[in-house]
Amino acid sequence: MRLSDLRPAPGSTRERKRVGRGIGSGKGKTAGRGTKGQKARGQIRPGFEGGQTPLHRRLPQRRGFTNIFKKDYAIVNLDQLAKLEEDVITPDLLQEKGIVKDIKDGLRVLGRGDVERAITVRAHHFSKSAEEKIRAKGGTVEVI
Fold first, then answer.
1. pLDDT digits (tens, 9 = 90+) for 105-143
2. CA angle 10, 13, 17 (to 5 degrees)
3. Is 109 exposed, middle or buried (0-12, 13-18, 19+ CB in 10 A)?
4. What is the C-alpha to C-alpha distance for residues 38 and 34, in angstroms, rounded to an integer?
5. Could you give all domains of the chain from N- to C-terminal order, each with its CATH number?
6. DSSP assignment, residue 39?
7. Which of these, 93, 108, 103, lies nearest to 143 by C-alpha position?
8. What pLDDT shows up at residue 53?
9. How far apart are CA 84 and CA 7, in angstroms?
10. Could you tell me which residues come within 8 angstroms of residue 124 by beta carbon, excluding any fewer than 6 positions away?
């Protein structure tokens, strides 16, 4: 088999329809465009509404886009965790104590402040500084 032997599958291609080639062709004279009017005479650009202000100009401009996959985390800082007496801190405990109102897509621990003792923190995401400060005091970080 050679490259020159390749052919499309039978019935998958057809000749293009040649319009405006006489009465006998079946698509002669007006070439399937009907009689008179703008569509019979020339091209109309997409979105043209006959001189009326088109939809894309009637709508207000809106730049950028909204990422529908964005995760919205509940945020808590180390100085807030340091105030708690518990050794194991979980998202449910923080919600119970009223530090976090809603867990949303998860809990994110940030590194503002410092912890004075070893604590175990379970959360969905940790900033690098928060992770380092917790581990420096002998605590553990558990990603849920």
1. 888 999 888 888 888 888 899 999 988 888 888 888 888
2. 140
3. buried
4. 11
5. 19-64 (no CATH), 74-143 (3.100.10.10)
6. H
7. 108
8. 94
9. 76
10. 73, 91, 105, 106, 107, 108, 143, 144
State both tokens at 121. 């923190």
Which pTM does this prediction carry? 0.53
The token pair at 99 is: 């530090």
Cα–Cα separations (whole angstroms), residue 71 to 3, 40, 45, 92: 51, 53, 41, 19
- Report the alpha-carbon distance of residue 133 to residue 78 in Å, rounded: 9
Q: What percent of the chain is predicted at pLDDT more than 90?
A: 32
